[in-house]
């Protein structure tokens, strides 16, 4: 091998990870775009694309073509390989859990039916999660290169413990990452190289939702992205700065659910009153609408269905929507004043509230915040159906994105 060839190959391998991430997030749909984004020669970009293709991660069109609406030299199109490897992604929440297989690009390949019960023993529920994922792998025959888990709790780093699983019957400090990894080993779920057990990556569900929305959804392109949402119980928030989650010194940053929006409101688990966590989640909505929450269905699904079917005809439902919007708007205004994001994305029931009466919500935010008043902070609905699942997959994909060759051939 000539020195020139050796240098070209080494240079190409040094940008394999950045190249894969550009294709994974849709920022390099062609080899020309990849060349420009990486700042390398066309020959180097071609070598990089060829190596990622040989690893089974992407596809490269054999014949170059011009993208629709563009001018200039046609370029080979790049895409994640739809038949390539997957990761096992799972989410546990107050009303149950779901497992899925997710490929590069945030594409959900297969999902197991949602379960409606969460055991008090985290080892049991995480064993069930992994069992469901193993069933998907067996039925699809896909190669697994990792596993990620989203949980409704702050996860302390580096220990991987759930320190405030408020809406689950788990003990505080449950070692969820260790339990998850053990369950993966028991089920013989493989890691990136195919020879070892997949490590269990675990993080807070709203943090992972924010990561997914930033890479693949409504937050794509934002430099300072604030995501706030309520799923089945409670309220969470996350901040993505320059493409990276802001998690604080030990993974516990941005507990936005404990901002006070009604000083004489409901008692909160934190010891205060009127926090976002208890004033703007599905349980608060159902109570404000005069409905019995009931044990038989998801609180989130029941709330969304009630808004969809009764908002126009039921004054109690319409009033509950207005009340929650006003409380949520006050909380968002405070966050905008403190964090100065360039975009806000809302998920779960908050997304439904925004879609139901976005003008009212944006007005409350604008009237209560310095930056919101200028109209420079767009408030958008999340665009991914299962963003916490996709975010859990991002955790598992990260070692491959960092070093594709090393991760898959070690």
SSE blueprint and pairings:
Blueprint: H1 3-14, H2 16-24, H3 31-38, H4 42-54, E1 58-60, E2 78-80, E3 86-93, E4 96-102, E5 108-111, H5 122-140, E6 144-151, E7 155-156, E8 161-162, H6 176-186, E9 200-204, H7 205-216, E10 224-230, E11 236-241, E12 244-245, H8 276-279, H9 282-288, H10 299-310, H11 315-339, E13 343-348, H12 349-356, H13 358-368, H14 370-373, E14 379-381, H15 387-402, H16 404-409
Protein name: Regulatory protein
Organism: Streptomyces nanshensis
Family: Belongs to the ROK (NagC/XylR) family.
If you had to describe this structure to a student in words, what would you say it looks like?
With 410 residues, this protein is α/β, with parallel strands linked by helices. It has helices at residues 3-14, 16-24, 31-38, 42-54, 122-140, 176-186, 205-216, 276-279, 282-288, 299-310, 315-339, 349-356, 358-368, 370-373, 387-402, 404-409, and strands spanning 58-60, 78-80, 86-93, 96-102, 108-111, 144-151, 155-156, 161-162, 200-204, 224-230, 236-241, 244-245, 343-348, 379-381. The longest helix is centred in the last third of the chain and has 25 residues, at 315-339. Helix 3 (31-38) crosses helix 4, helix 7 crosses helix 15 and helix 11 crosses helix 12 (349-356). The strands form 4 sheets. Strands 5-4-3-6-9 form a 5-stranded mixed beta sheet, with helices on both faces. A 5-stranded mixed beta sheet has the order 12-11-10-13-14. A two-stranded antiparallel sheet has the order 1-2. The radius of gyration is 22 Å and the shape is globular. The protein folds into 3 domains: 3-80, Orthogonal Bundle (Arc Repressor Mutant, subunit A); 86-207 and 388-409, Nucleotidyltransferase, domain 5 (2-Layer Sandwich); 220-383, 2-Layer Sandwich (Nucleotidyltransferase, domain 5).
């Amino acid at each position: 091998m000539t020195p020139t060839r050796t240098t070209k190959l080494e240079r190409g391998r040094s940008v394999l990870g950045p190249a894969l991430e550009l294709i994974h997030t849709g920022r390099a749909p062609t080899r020309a775009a990849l060349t420009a984004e990486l700042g390398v020669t066309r020959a180097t970009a071609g070598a990089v694309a060829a190596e990622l293709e040989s690893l089974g991660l992407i596809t490269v069109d054999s014949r170059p073509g011009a993208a629709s609406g563009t001018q200039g030299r046609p370029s080979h199109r790049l895409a994640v390989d739809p038949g390539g490897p997957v990761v096992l992604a799972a989410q546990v929440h107050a009303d149950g859990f779901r497992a899925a297989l997710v490929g590069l690009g945030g594409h959900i390949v297969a999902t197991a039916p949602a379960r409606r019960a969460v055991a008090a023993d985290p080892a049991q529920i995480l064993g069930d999660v992994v069992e469901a994922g193993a069933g998907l792998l067996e039925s699809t025959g896909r190669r697994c290169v990792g596993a990620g888990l989203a949980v409704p709790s702050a996860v302390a780093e580096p220990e991987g413990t759930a320190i405030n699983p408020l809406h689950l019957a788990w003990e505080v400090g449950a070692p969820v990452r260790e339990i998850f990894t053990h369950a993966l080993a028991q089920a013989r779920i493989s890691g990136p190289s195919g020879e070892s057990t997949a490590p269990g990556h675990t993080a807070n569900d709203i943090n992972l939702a924010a990561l997914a929305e930033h890479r693949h959804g409504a937050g794509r392109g934002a430099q300072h992205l604030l995501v706030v949402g309520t799923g089945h119980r409670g309220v969470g928030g996350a901040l993505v700065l320059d493409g990276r989650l802001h998690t604080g010194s030990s993974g516990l940053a941005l507990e936005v659910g404990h901002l006070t929006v009604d000083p004489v409101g409901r008692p909160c688990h934190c010891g205060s009153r009127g926090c976002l966590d208890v004033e703007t989640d599905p349980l608060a909505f159902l109570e404000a609408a005069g409905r019995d929450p009931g044990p038989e269905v998801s609180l989130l699904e029941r709330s969304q269905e009630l808004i969809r079917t009764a908002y126009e005809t039921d004054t109690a439902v319409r009033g509950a929507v207005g009340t929650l919007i006003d409380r949520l708007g006050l909380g968002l205004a405070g966050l905008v004043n403190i964090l100065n994001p360039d975009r806000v994305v809302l998920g779960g029931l908050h997304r439904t509230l925004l879609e139901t009466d976005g003008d009212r919500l944006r007005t409350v935010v604008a009237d209560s915040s310095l930056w919101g008043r200028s109209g420079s902070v767009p408030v958008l609905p999340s665009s991914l159906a299962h963003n916490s699942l996709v975010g859990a997959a991002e955790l598992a994909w990260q070692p491959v994105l960092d070093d594709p060759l090393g991760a898959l051939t070690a």
